[in-house]
Amino acid sequence: MKAMVFHGPGRRAWEDVPDPEPVDPTDAVVRVTAATICGTDLHILKGDVPEVTPGRVLGHEAVGVVERVGAAVTAIKPGDRVLVSCISACGRCEYCRTGVYGQCLGGGGWVLGHTVDGTHAEYVRVPFADTSTHLLPDAVDDGAAVMLSDILPTAYEVGVLSGGVRPGQSVVVLGAGPIGLAAIETAKLFSPGLVVAVDLAQSRLDAAKQFGADATVLASDDVEAAIAELTGGRGADVAIEAVGVPETFELCTRLIRPGGRVANVGVHGKAATLHLEDLWIRNVTITTGLVDTVSTPALLRMLTAGRLDAARFATHHFALDEMDLAYDVFARSAETGALKVVLTR
Fold first, then answer.
1. What domains can be seen in the chain, in order of their start residue?
2. Residues 176, 223: contact at Cβ < 8 Å?
3. What is residue 215's DSSP assignment?
4. Which one of the record's GO molecular function terms can you name (predicted)?
5. Residue 232: which residues within 8 A CB-CB, separation 6 or more?
6. Residue 299 pLDDT greater than 90, yes or no
7. 133 close to 126: Cβ distance less than 8 angstroms
8. What tens digit of pLDDT does each residue of 170-214 get?
9. If you average pLDDT over residues 273-295, what whole number do you get?
10. What pLDDT was estimated at residue 253?
């Protein structure tokens, strides 16, 4: 089969690799019918995730049709159409039994495209298939469903829920890329009083408006002064970091009010300074996290009921064998305007 293979920082290739087979009785092999590329895949290509070794098939987001299942798999069967979660869950360890699947001790967590071969391929082996896939209703199409592999649960859990967004609060989202936009959309589920998007690109701020932001601020402007004005001098109740660079994290800590919360979602490849000399007295809460995908069933129900518009994240569509072109378009999003690219058979 063909797959997108990582060959070290800055090097990738769409090339022939062996077809996957079930290794453990809890495995399934899924024929990929739709996939999308994540900002984390770009971080891997930059060398920011050293655990990913050359030869690894990239990708952790997909929709597909079950081809084969191991002897212990009972929840899905060949022919079923499923969402492949970005997080694999053994379902038995201490963390999985409390819904913290991202920290799975039994061989799961974020493994696809990280420590085992991923979804940017014609077929993928899915570990712990019973607890790492979701049956899809016929009413939900592939292009919308694949957004529930990662960006929507990540933004919702690590950004909105960890940030403690409540009705009437002011929320600032730094970074209006796919994760930031997903944070805006899911924050609106809690009826905040104000949602502000901050980004360097006007095109992404325009997209943020379409996704529900009440106000936008160019990152090249005086962001602190703008947020102070919008919040009556108080500062934001919640700041969601959705970029993954030191400057935006540090800015988040300056934008919140005393008692405010910073929810870091971005993947960081460099150290950021934590100014405890300023923060210790301000009752500030800072959260970090890897998505657990425990919210995926609820998000899927909302998507099926028309309460979420996931399809609009996809700005560019490609055939699966145009993977290399899709990576190029997604990596140059400032020029191409790409939010999420969807690849289908």
1. 2-150+292-344 (3.90.180.10), 153-287 (3.40.50.720)
2. no
3. E
4. oxidoreductase activity
5. none
6. yes
7. yes
8. 999 999 999 999 999 999 999 999 999 999 999 999 999 999 999
9. 97
10. 98
Helix (H, G, I), strand (E, B) or coil at 276: helix
CA gap 281, 291 in Å, rounded: 30
| pLDDT score for 269 | 82
Nearest to 179 by CA among 313, 89, 285, 336: 313
Cβ-based neighbours of 324, under 8 Å, separated by 6 or more: 4, 12, 13, 14
Give the CA-trace dihedral at 88, 109, 339, 135, to 10 degrees: 20
State residue 118 phi and psi, 5-degree precision: -105, -155
Q: Look at strands 215-218 and 81-84 and give their pairing.
A: unpaired
One-letter amino acid identity for 216? T
Q: Which of 177, 180, 89 is nearest to 132 (CA)?
A: 89
DSSP E strands, 89-184: 123-126, 133-135, 170-174
> What angle, 0 to 180 degrees and rounded to 10, lies between the N-to-C axes of helices 202-210 and 178-187?
30
DSSP H or E stretch at residue 203? helix 202-210
pLDDT classification of 240: cutoffs 50, 70, 90: very high
Distance of CA 324 to the CA centre of its chain: 21
Q: What is the pLDDT, as a whole number, of residue 48?
A: 86
Mean pLDDT value across residues 133-159: 97
**Three-state secondary structure call for residue 189:** helix
Q: Above pLDDT 90, what percent of the chain?
A: 97
Compute the C-alpha angle 88/72/68, nearest 5°. Answer: 80
Can you tell me the distance from the alpha carbon of 140 to that of 302, in angstroms, rounded to the nearest whole number? 11
pLDDT attached to residue 284: 97
Residue found by looking up tokens 């930059």 in the block: 46
Q: How far from the centroid of its chain's Cα atoms is residue 314's Cα?
A: 14
Pairwise CA distance, residues 154 & 25, whole Å: 29
To the nearest 10°, the Cα dihedral for 287, 291, 292, 296?
A: 120
- Buried-exposed string 4-13: b where 16+ CB fall within 10 A, e elsewhere: bbbeeeeebe
E strand map for 143-193: 170-174
